[in-house]
Design goal:
Strand content: 25-35%
Structural class: alpha+beta
Mean pLDDT: 87
Helix content: 10-25%
Number of helices: 6
Largest sheet: 10 strands, mixed
Low-confidence stretches: 1-9, 15-49, 52-57
Radius of gyration: 32 Å
Length: 427
């Protein structure tokens, strides 16, 4: 009996040892399996994810600035309103309790997502710091652009001009304009995408409509579905070249043209006229409807022969655009059109000079607001052709409309001006 009892205890001991062994082995397998599942290509962080190549990124710490400008811990990557502080953010490995920074790791933050690239070492930890974006005026943003001089305007300008603006003067002072094919003059405002034409001499910012997307060609880059309209329904008087005009007057502004009526109607229905957006729109800088005559011509309402406006000669024969404007030709409206001179500065050339490689090209024809001539009893205004060149047509022809607005000089922006990160106005 005593032997049997000892034998029984021995069996129980073996059973216990076996169970313990199974438990240890199971724990090892479970841990190994769990480790296998940790070998992944991305770590989701709420609404964003951090992508990497090595499966040993085992810690990510997030910090955002609070109202006092201090960094506080966060549970998610911010999806907007913040920028990654690249100097503060880093990844590294632990060495005797201290994190040694690994400068070969590249951290990229775009569209609310963080990508961590170039990891090569195990045990890497990343510390990401996000600063709240602070709006800035376009004048300050301009400090980040290189300033250049266009030179000749006798041929189409197609150069990629990212990070470059060009200088000239207008009736307010020094103006900075975009030309060629920039990739950083995008603005999102009022539910629409726009391209910056120029920063006016008073610091206000002139924008041309691009539609509800960043697609650069097609009828959707114009208002009202790309519907083509007349500039003026009547064409047998030279004053009908004016966006605003007065019959019997060279520079009058008593009557709105047919096109201006459409512009104003769209402005009201688009929501831009609401206080949320109109507070940012500058009316005082105005739009130029240059109705000065070319040298050697005298204005007449219904001349017996042809007459030419100043813009025709400076853009055709002289190839010398300018942005000066007489005070009696400056139209104070919240919305207008681009001028033929602005098209020439941007890269378009008058008559038989196509340009499909500059930012004003949209594969459609649309009106400018610049008078050209009175020819064969027709008032004629410049337009941008579907080939991207400058031309002119009678005011009773039909073309599309791309509105132009001016934003106030003290308007604050965030963003970098690209298609994916356009300048956005801050309140």
């Amino acid at each position: 009996m005593e032997f049997e009892v000892l034998k029984g205890n021995h069996v129980k001991r073996n059973i216990i040892i076996g169970l313990v062994s199974v438990f240890i082995i199971s724990a090892i397998i479970l841990n190994f399996t769990s480790a296998k599942y940790r070998v992944t290509d991305s770590v989701p962080i709420i609404n964003s994810e951090i992508n990497y190549k090595v499966p040993d990124l085992n810690m990510v710490s997030l910090y955002v600035t609070n109202e006092e400008g201090e960094y506080v811990e966060a549970d998610m990557v911010p999806t907007g309103g913040y920028t990654l502080n690249k100097e503060q953010s880093y990844c590294g490995q632990s060495n005797n309790g201290e994190i040694v920074r690994d400068d070969t790791v590249n951290i990229v933050y775009e569209n609310g997502q963080v990508n961590v690239l170039g990891l090569t070492k195990k045990g890497t930890k990343c510390y990401l710091y996000f600063d709240e974006q602070v709006g800035d005026t376009m004048q300050t943003i301009l400090a980040n652009y290189n300033k250049d001089n266009r030179g000749s305007f006798s041929s189409a300008y197609t150069t990629t001009t990212t990070n470059i603006v060009f200088t000239t003067t207008d009736w307010k002072g020094t103006s900075y304009y975009f030309a060629g094919a920039p990739t950083d003059n995008w603005v999102y405002f009022g539910g629409f995408y726009w391209r910056i034409v120029r920063v006016n001499g008073d610091g206000s910012v002139r924008l041309i409509y691009n539609g509800t997307s960043t697609k650069t060609t097609g009828k959707e880059t114009m208002i009202n579905g790309g519907a083509e309209v007349v500039f003026n329904s009547s064409s047998n008087r030279s004053e009908y070249v004016g966006l605003k005009y007065t019959e019997g007057s060279q520079h009058g502004q008593n009557t709105d043209s047919s096109l201006l009526d459409i512009l104003q109607s769209w402005y009201s229905s688009s929501g831009l006229s609401t206080s949320q957006y109109s507070q940012h729109i500058d009316i005082n800088v105005g739009f130029c409807s240059d109705r000065n005559m070319a040298s050697g011509y005298t204005w007449s309402s219904q001349p017996s022969g042809s007459i030419y406006y100043a813009a025709n000669r400076r853009l055709d024969a002289d190839k010398n655009p300018n942005l000066s404007c007489a005070s009696n030709d400056i139209i104070k409206e919240p919305i207008g059109l681009i001028t033929a001179d602005e098209v020439a500065f941007a890269g378009g050339v008058l008559y038989l000079a196509n340009n499909q490689e500059y930012y004003l090209y949209n594969n459609q024809g649309y009106w400018t607001m610049t008078p050209s001539n009175f020819l064969l009893n027709f008032a004629v205004v410049f337009q941008v052709g579907s080939d991207g060149g400058l031309g002119d047509y009678g005011v009773d022809y039909t073309f599309g409309i791309r509105p132009v607005i001016n934003l106030k000089a003290d308007t604050s922006f965030t963003g970098s001006g690209t298609q994916t990160d356009p300048y956005v106005i801050t309140e």
